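Researcher: Please translate sequence to structure tokens.
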Amino acid sequence: MQSTLQESPLQKIVYSGLGNGTMWPWNMNVIALKNLRKLEFDCVPITDVVSELSYGLVVLESLVISICFMLKCINISSKSLKQLSIADCEGLTTKATIDAPKLLEFLCSCEVETSLSLIRALDHCNAQFLTLSLFSVTTIWLVKLKKFLVQTNFFKSLVIELGTPLEILIEEDQLRNVGTGAPYKLRELKLRGTSDWTPTKSSLVAFLNGLFWCCHPDVLSMTTKLQDSTAKLILSILREKAQCWKDPLKSIAVESIEYPQLLSHSSELEIRLRLSW
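Model: Translation complete:
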């Protein structure tokens, strides 16, 4: 399908192919839109057209690519891009190039190896906020994530969105034998989606130990619900860890509890815990 756009002051485009039956590669002359700041592809049969966007869209600040199954590779070079989101692109290979020196926030929800490849491609960026959506956490994934955080040394905040079901495949003995140095210092680690996850205590302990082997956050925050049993179990495990003299976690304190949507009668809240190591 070929679409042609003329020059326009348009600053945002959201293109969704959901339900339109389009199955062949899609092409659109968005480069003509010199003022475009936000571009979103949702369920569109693009293949590698993304690589052409960054050369013409000189003021593009936000790029979202989701459920684009025919997308094979990512090749982005942009001096203006600040936000990049790539989610559920099952055909995406592990080859990626992302050169965006002004990138501040990166969200990735892909297969484990593809996610690692994409975040490794951020070497030339200065992003401070990294969001990862997980359905599986393995020993190898933690090792590679830690090495990446330490080597790049620019992320301040890590957001982990917990998928359902979340598979925990962590061998703590293997982690202790990996010589990757001290845990990476984070300003904040955010866990989202705990209310939809019902792990056993042993799985949750392995998950937290793995995360804390990888990084030591000053603040751990959870977006949860009032009756969230997983969040309560996390708090219980953290208290036990702080009381164990062998554990590097020395103390925890509640920094704040916020109800962002209190007036809308939502049961969702955010708990922020100050951690001392």
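Researcher: Any highlights?
Model: DSSP finds six helices and 15 strands in the chain.
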